[in-house]
Design brief:
about 80 residues, DNA Methylase, Chain A, domain 2, elongated
Length: about 80
């Protein structure tokens, strides 16, 4: 996913079954954010371009978790306290 994920014109982010670009929520799910993750604080105005940039620039949640687990294992196995 990139910061341009809302535009079908770039050809990479079309919905697989419908003639449209993917939605902000679909982009977030592809980046492995939980389906109920809230990107905007209650009462804050939603800015679609800002959200697309935030989601597109994010490290996928599951990738971050995998990297963190790997670092933790390495430290546990190779660093003495």
């Amino acid at each position: 996913i990139t910061t341009q994920c809302l535009g079908i014109g770039n050809g990479r982010f079309g919905h697989p079954e419908q003639d449209r670009a993917i939605s902000i929520r679909e982009a977030a799910i592809l980046q492995s954010f939980p389906a109920d993750f809230e990107f905007v604080a209650p009462g804050e105005r939603v800015n679609q371009l800002r959200l697309a940039r935030q989601i597109g620039n994010a490290v996928p949640v599951r990738l971050g978790e995998a990297v963190a687990r790997s670092i933790k294992r390495h430290l546990e196995n190779h660093v003495q306290a």
